[in-house]
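Obj: model holo form, ligand = pyridoxal-5'-phosphate.
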Amino acid sequence: MARLFDLEDSGYFYTRLQNPTNDAVAAKIAALEGGVGAMLTSSGQAANFYAIINICGTGDHFVSSSAIYGGTFNLFAVTLKQFGIDVTFVSPDATEQEIAAAFRPNTKALFGETISNPSVEVLDIEKFARVAHAHGVPLIVDNTFPTPINCRPIEWGADIVVHSTTKYMDGHATSVGGVIVDGGKFPWAQYPDKYPGLCTPDESYHGLTYTETFGSSAYLTKATVHLMRDLGSIQSPHNAFLLNLGLETLHLRMPRHCSNALAVAQYLQAHPKVAWVEYAGLESSPYYELAQKYMPNGTCGVVSFGIKGGRDEAIRFMDSLRLAA
Ligand SMILES: *Cc1c(COP(=O)(O)O)cnc(C)c1O
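Output (holo structure tokens):
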């Protein structure tokens, strides 16, 4: 027991810290993404929150694509600011010079979504990774929409991948959840002044230094034994069990989501009452080329479009929809 508490052995003694069901599911997602390990969280919000605060504290700054999920935008722009963590937003279409101009001496990370929710803009992962690495910070990518079936951001230079597993990974609306995957490649130990939480002794863990003891899993280990220990947003093991059932069919569901979405996008594009359609699978999309490069087998099932006639017509359209429930 003492060896487990001191992280000298791996094993199970308390579910908030580790649970065999959660570990099996996390290991499956890590394998799908090509990472060294993963940690399940209670929601996608918790995953993004932990992914940032694992390396950012009061007085720090990070840069984020502006094309991100609304909940993440609020977390970054409002709540993290209350923690003293500042963010600068850049367009996903910004040039490398424009992204670089947002960096400061205290910048600790760069963040983006592979395909943004709900505007479905495609991130040029290699471009973002180049700028991040030129400034000695990791690229964190939210890969919720394509899932690793359609895109594996770590292979394109991302260092940390996060998901809301609530969406496609679960796929059956049974459980809210999130995950953080560690790519294991970022050289934290080269930047001890920038990442003291990873590179200097953690007094709350008997003076253990994560980069020295855990090497390529330093980031993930700190997220597990420090953040999860203290903040506690674990995924319920029963939700992890349900998530695992969803994962078993993910590779079958994603291609069908994509072919369904493409059919809907093509239908809407030809419709006289539709003003515009955004779906990276359409050749007319400004993101078509990027999607072909990063997601040649398909992007996601979400289509974004506008109704002719502005807000009033959009509201009338929404009010006329019937939900099959
Ligand atoms: C839904 C979503 C989140 C938040 O996840 P929850 O599981 O709802 O907390 C984060 N990022 C993206 C891209 C999402 O679609």
